[in-house]
Amino acid sequence: MSGFEGVSDEEVLAAYADTSLGRGRRESAFGELVTRYERRVYGIAFRYFGNHADAQDATQDTFVQLARKADQFRGDSKLSTWIYRVTTNACNDLGRKMARRPQLAVEDVDDHRSGTEDETPTEDLLAGRELALEIQRALLQLDDLSRQLIILCAIEGQSYAEVSDALDLPVGTIKSRVFRARARLAELLAPVIDPDDDRFPVPHRPDAGVGPDGTAAPRGPPA
Amino acid sequence: METGERLAAYLAGELDVDATHALEAELARDERLRARLDAIRATDEALAGLPPIEPPADFSVRLRDAVAAELDRQLPADGDELTARRSRRARGGTAATRTWWPQVAVAAAVLAVAGIGLSQLGQGDASGPEAALDTATDAMPEMSIQAASGPTVVAAGRSFDAENLRDLADDTRFDELVDQGLAGTEAERAADDFGAAIQGEAPADGGAMAAAEDARGTEAAMEAAPAPDIGLRTVGDVSEEDLEAVRECLPSLLEAQTAVIPVYVELVTFEGQDAIVYGLVGNDPAAETYSRVELWVVGRGDCQVVHFTQVDR
Predict the structure, then answer these.
(1) By the CB < 8 Å criterion, does A69 face chain B?
(2) What is the second-level CATH architecture of the domain A7-103?
(3) Using one digit for the tens of pLDDT, what is the confidence trace for A31-55?
(4) Does the beta carbon of B56 lie under 8 angstroms from any beta carbon of chain A?
(5) C-alpha to C-alpha distance for A150 and A220, rounded to whole angstroms
(6) Fewer CB within 10 Å of terminal CB in chain A, N or C?
(7) Which of chain A's residues have a Cβ under 8 Å away from the Cβ of B52?
(8) What pTM did the predictor assign?
(9) In chain B, what residues touch A212 (CB-CB under 8 Å)?
(10) What is the CATH number that goes with domain A123-202?
């Protein structure tokens, strides 16, 4: 038990930054933040780089930066938004440092597993993994900002306002870039995602075609 | 707004009423446009349905190890912030271990003012403070007083790119520290002191005066020790604003698992952008000596790393 059950993210960070508290308590507070965010940060970094080695480095850089800059959090946005900002900066910085390094091949999200689980993957599972790999390949073909926008908005489900805060760009710019990125990604994935093909477990809605009366409900990332 | 962007905006419910009606009219008569809309919708759904990423099994442990090391740097020991700051650098060392600058400073002071010969130094208990002076006498012939001069900041004026940046690694200022047989703790102290000089702070432990007190424990030695000479040297017209920019970006470059010594800084134009080059001397793990020159180019103002190269000398 960390002693931070039911405590908000912002309060946990405040405990870490509180110099009047003992070291043990402050370490516990930061450990709690790591527990709450490590998988989310890792997921973003993996989507950004497409390989586990860089994702681990970027995740580590992110938490090191959080530890160093905790006193810079002003509280005018959610802590999660700030963490997303630090994460995207860490990815960008690492990406720049690695710019001259040969690109690693895109790894399957399950490449590191031992294979002891799910010994006989079902056809759906295989199709899902194949689709995930194709999506990852397509993501890596987008420019850095477009990729980050897709990761944060369409995969992580952040609102445009939150992403605007995280990336320090106007909401209008975020929306416009997200729409373009989604359209571009659809072009890249067109050969593998056929809305009328049931090979992939993409829920296909019978009303996908929008009729002239416009009754089909719009669907997209959260506004 | 291009078509794809318009379709995605429509799916997100972000088009106004007129634009929505116009697009729906187009969709009603254009099968290819409907197919494109379907493709974007299917992509959105595929993205939303992606499974979470599973990190490698040892990821969490490795992350916590890295975080623990960082917290060791960031957090003071309970009740003694100053001790904690010192301990993070001295970890693994002993209280009797002195570091390179006080050794040179004290030895130089004693030689210059008190007139004590080299052979007279280093006598006594090898585990005591004099042992440090013994080391200092060994170091003296190798490390000139110039070695204690401190970091240099060069004013703007030159342009570099990825190709010619490496020439900077040949700057003779690096010779003062590269491959001088610095031990880990000495290098850490040098890193602290050179960093402090750039930041305009006093050297840790009060510099040579405190070092003299520690090492000799005599008033004579304290009087003999000169004022610390690790100062920031500037070349050309370096403004206070320039120094602020240099200071702002330095800390993140110094925060590494092993010490790096900031020897040389130059305000430059790098591939057309206002930038700052930091020349750091670091440990070459293969040679286990401080013989690696790292050149970091960061954007002036945003401190973002633009370019990095290293030369093992």
Answers:
(1) no
(2) Orthogonal Bundle (1.10)
(3) 999 999 999 999 999 999 998 989 9
(4) yes
(5) 12
(6) N
(7) 39, 43
(8) 0.52
(9) 24-25, 27-28
(10) 1.10.10.10
